[in-house]
Write a structure and sequence with these properties.
two-stranded antiparallel sheet, about 20% helix
């Protein structure tokens, strides 16, 4: 096994609503597909079960409340220049939401082949 640490890595979180759309398609799906096309390392969509945003409306998955617009968070982690490109690509799709960026340290563990694409800007330990 090979272990690689990345120190120039960012986590991008995109906060939108479940009902948000882009040209008739769910916005979260469009964003994830675009991130994949751009070659980002990966992306995950989280569906919130309870929360509120800047308008202070509570959104809940509670059966009694039947909220139809639950919070969605799309999270992607990659090298800084890839996250910057991604932001520029997707920010125009978001009408009402927020994007946050945080630095992270990523430790990739796997075979040499699996981690080889991340070696160029990594700190390496074997």
């Amino acid at each position: 096994m090979v272990e690689i640490e990345h120190w120039n890595t960012l986590r991008m979180r995109i906060y939108i609503g479940e009902n948000d759309s882009w040209h008739g398609r769910p916005l979260y799906k469009v964003i994830v597909e675009r991130l994949k096309e751009m070659g980002l390392a990966g992306a995950t969509v989280y569906r919130g079960i309870y929360g509120f945003g800047k308008k202070s409306r509570v959104h809940s998955s509670d059966v009694l409340r039947l909220s139809m617009d639950l919070p969605i968070i799309i999270e992607a982690i990659d090298r800084g220049h890839m996250i910057e490109k991604a932001i520029n690509e997707i920010k125009t799709m978001i009408k009402d939401g927020m994007i946050t960026i945080e630095p992270v340290i990523v430790v990739w563990v796997g075979t040499k082949e699996e981690v080889s694409r991340f070696e160029e800007d990594a700190v390496r330990e074997e």
